[in-house]
């Protein structure tokens, strides 16, 4: 991207007789700004949609209509009206608060939530739609999403309010505990694909929905639901929203916040919901490969030229975002259906159910993968040739992982 | 000056400034906050060097670990509303001497290792990801793909995988954890006479 921008700028500069090297700072800064603007746009717009969706879905579940007036039909501009109201509110800071930390906390939460999107790909193959293509993307996303709680703890502490501190402490305990089963669940698709690269993970599931890791074997099917439970808990959504717990703690960690700072916490929450959902979509639901490979059937692949491949990637991006939105809708549905758990029940769910379940499923999936290699869809179908051939190439060596696995290179020789 | 050195100076500057802020601050939660920023800037340095596995590790372990430290700092030491710490001048002097000695050793070493001298190597290309985790994973299994060009065959064989030491270390850690849990376990007193 940066190189391409520099080449474009060089072409423009050549009109006035100037020139620009390929690795000039300008292209890199521009590329970074474009990525940030796109990701910020996605997170902010999806937060607008999710808040509206939350109101409508909760209304329907409670046999109400929800917002109906703002913006004509369905009250679709309701969130914008809410946003305007929040902008006009006074920015209050409690007198006893640690003022610097109090002011900074919402931004830290939001930054951590947004940073997770840097490594999330929206389409794969030859030209992946991803801000930074990392070899360890899964790990990076998990590491960064764990930092969101930091802003919450700072907010709870700096508010100098008992409700806030209680909420923050609960959230800290909850998020730190749920990282364990969540990490165990994420390891299962990583093990099946043999890579932590999210682009590679998505491409490994290309083709029909039968190739999705959700249907790989019974263990991965269960692991997906454990992951989703832990994901809901790690973003503090009901029934795990003990950090807010309106009926006990007023509003938990954001009791003292008002106006724009409060809305930053909400943007962070909806951003992490989307990040967790997109990660689930890439790990288990085939990522940019739809249930039916429309792009492949229409010939929109990279083999048929860059323009068609790009269009195919665009379809893939729609797929990823649609799957992410679907999972967020399920989260909203769950929130308005289940009652809130007590703190001991939350811990029991994590330590006595999710963690052992994830560990057993991990062992089960490993055994399944070794006894039935190259089988998909509960072992009923043979994995497509193109998926099996896909392996990571090691840089600067004529050797790839598959050659070692097939025993072409003996262990002693490779050392 | 090219752009990567600019980013390096930015990240290292952040790390250094916030590290000093940790020392100069009195409030324990602010200290933890500055420490997190300093460690995150260090993670940024790792990412800049193309070592994204180490960078993510830094984020996960050090920044995440400081988070837990922060929680314990608030929970265990909060007597008044905002905890502050005072250091005596004797402690300050000892810390200065120790820190200065460590700084001297580190700077001395960094300047003298020939492999760490500045080179004119091209920076990593941006569009293809650098494989950072895969070689480590393969080395654990016994394939040192980074040593394939090693001309000396006995040296190549000598540097076989890390799996054995890794397993020993992890078993050791497990023993330590079990021991800690044993020592810290709640002793049940059956005082149900009332």
From TrEMBL, chain A:
Cell compartment(s), UniProt: Cell membrane; Membrane
Chief location bin: membrane
PROSITE patterns, per database record: COMPLEX1_ND1_2
TM region positions: 25-53, 104-124, 136-159, 180-201, 213-235, 264-288, 308-334, 346-368
GO cellular component terms given for this protein: plasma membrane
EC number: 7.1.1.-
Keyword Membrane: yes
One of the protein's GO biological processes: aerobic respiration
Signal peptide: none
Catalytic activity as recorded in UniProt: a quinone + NADH + 5 H(+)(in) = a quinol + NAD(+) + 4 H(+)(out)
Family to which this protein belongs: Belongs to the complex I subunit 1 family.
Assembly, per entry: NDH-1 is composed of 14 different subunits. Subunits NuoA, H, J, K, L, M, N constitute the membrane sector of the complex.
HAMAP family named among the record's database cross-references: NDH1_NuoH
Protein purpose: NDH-1 shuttles electrons from NADH, via FMN and iron-sulfur (Fe-S) centers, to quinones in the respiratory chain. The immediate electron acceptor for the enzyme in this species is believed to be ubiquinone. Couples the redox reaction to proton translocation (for every two electrons transferred, four hydrogen ions are translocated across the cytoplasmic membrane), and thus conserves the redox energy in a proton gradient. This subunit may bind ubiquinone.
Protein name: NADH-quinone oxidoreductase subunit H
Species classification: Bacteria, Pseudomonadati, Planctomycetota, Planctomycetia, Pirellulales
UniProtKB/TrEMBL annotation, chain B:
Family matches, as Pfam families: Oxidored_q3 (PF00499)
Annotated signal sequence range: none
Top-level EC class: translocase
One GO location term (cellular component): plasma membrane
Subcellular location: Cell membrane
Segments traversing the membrane: 6-24, 31-53, 59-78, 90-111, 162-184
Reactions catalysed, as given in the entry: a quinone + NADH + 5 H(+)(in) = a quinol + NAD(+) + 4 H(+)(out)
Keyword Transmembrane helix: yes
One GO molecular-function entry: quinone binding
Enzyme Commission numbers on file: 7.1.1.-
Key words of the record: Cell membrane, Membrane, NAD, Quinone, Transmembrane, Transmembrane helix
Record's bilayer topology term: Multi-pass membrane protein
Annotated function: NDH-1 shuttles electrons from NADH, via FMN and iron-sulfur (Fe-S) centers, to quinones in the respiratory chain. Couples the redox reaction to proton translocation (for every two electrons transferred, four hydrogen ions are translocated across the cytoplasmic membrane), and thus conserves the redox energy in a proton gradient.
Family: Belongs to the complex I subunit 6 family.
Entries under PANTHER family matching the protein: NADH-UBIQUINONE OXIDOREDUCTASE CHAIN 6
UniProt-recorded name of the protein: NADH-quinone oxidoreductase subunit J
Organism: Aeoliella straminimaris
């Amino acid at each position: 991207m940066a190189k391409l921008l520099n080449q474009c700028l060089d072409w423009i500069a050549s009109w006035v007789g100037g020139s620009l090297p390929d690795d000039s700072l300008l292209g890199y800064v521009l590329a970074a700004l474009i990525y940030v603007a796109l990701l910020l746009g996605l997170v902010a717009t999806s937060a607008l949609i999710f808040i509206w969706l939350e109101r409508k879905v909760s209304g329907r579940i409670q046999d109400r209509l929800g917002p109906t007036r703002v913006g004509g039909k369905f009250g679709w501009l309701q969130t914008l009206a809410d946003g305007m109201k929040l902008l006009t509110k006074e920015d209050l800071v409690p007198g006893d608060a640690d003022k610097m930390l109090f002011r900074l906390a919402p931004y830290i939460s939001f930054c951590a939530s947004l940073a997770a999107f840097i490594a999330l790909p929206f389409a794969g193959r030859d030209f992946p739609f991803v801000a930074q293509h990392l070899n360890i993307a899964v790990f990076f996303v998990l590491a960064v999403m764990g930092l969101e709680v930091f802003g919450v703890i700072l907010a709870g502490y700096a508010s100098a309010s008992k409700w806030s501190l209680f909420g923050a402490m609960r959230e800290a305990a909850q998020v730190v505990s749920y990282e364990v089963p969540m990490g165990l669940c994420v390891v299962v698709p990583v093990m099946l694909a043999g890579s932590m690269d999210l682009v590679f993970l998505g491409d490994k599931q290309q083709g029909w929905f039968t190739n999705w890791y959700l249907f790989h074997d019974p263990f991965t099917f269960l692991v997906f639901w454990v992951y989703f439970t832990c994901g809901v808990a790690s973003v503090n959504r009901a029934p795990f929203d003990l950090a807010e717990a309106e009926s006990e703690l007023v509003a938990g960690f954001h009791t003292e916040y008002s106006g724009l700072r409060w809305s930053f916490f909400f943007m962070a929450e909806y951003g992490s919901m989307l990040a967790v959902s997109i990660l689930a979509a890439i790990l288990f639901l085939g990522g940019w490969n739809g249930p039916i490979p429309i792009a492949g059937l229409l010939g929109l692949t990279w083999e048929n030229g860059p323009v068609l491949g790009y269009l195919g990637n665009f379809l893939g991006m729609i797929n990823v975002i649609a799957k992410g939105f679907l999972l967020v809708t399920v989260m909203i549905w769950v929130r308005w259906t289940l009652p809130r758990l007590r703190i001991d029940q939350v811990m029991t769910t994590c330590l006595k159910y999710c963690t052992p379940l994830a560990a057993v499923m991990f062992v089960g999936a490993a055994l399944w993968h070794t006894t039935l290699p190259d089988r998909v869809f509960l072992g009923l179908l043979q994995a497509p040739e193109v998926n099996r051939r896909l392996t990571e190439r090691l840089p600067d060596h004529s050797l790839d992982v598959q050659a070692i696995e097939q025993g072409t290179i003996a262990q002693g020789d490779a050392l | 000056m090219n752009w990567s050195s600019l980013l390096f100076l930015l990240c290292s500057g952040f790390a250094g400034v916030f590290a000093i802020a940790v020392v100069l601050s009195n409030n324990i939660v602010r200290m933890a906050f500055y420490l997190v920023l300093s460690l995150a800037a260090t993670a940024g340095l790792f990412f800049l060097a193309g070592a994204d596995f180490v960078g993510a590790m830094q984020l996960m372990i050090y920044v995440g670990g400081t988070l837990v430290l922060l929680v314990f700092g608030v929970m265990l030491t909060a007597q008044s509303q905002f905890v502050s710490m005072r250091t005596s001048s004797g402690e300050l002097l000892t810390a200065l001497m120790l820190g200065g000695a460590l700084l001297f050793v580190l700077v001395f070493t960094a300047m003298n290792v020939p492999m760490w001298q500045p080179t004119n190597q091209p920076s990593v290309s941006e569009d293809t990801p650098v494989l950072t985790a895969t070689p480590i994973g393969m080395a654990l299994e016994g394939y040192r793909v980074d040593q394939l060009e090693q001309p000396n065959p006995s040296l190549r064989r000598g540097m076989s995988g890390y799996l054995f030491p890794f397993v020993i270390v992890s078993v050791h850690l497990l023993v330590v954890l079990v021991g800690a849990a044993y020592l810290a376990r709640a002793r049940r007193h059956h005082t149900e006479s009332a």
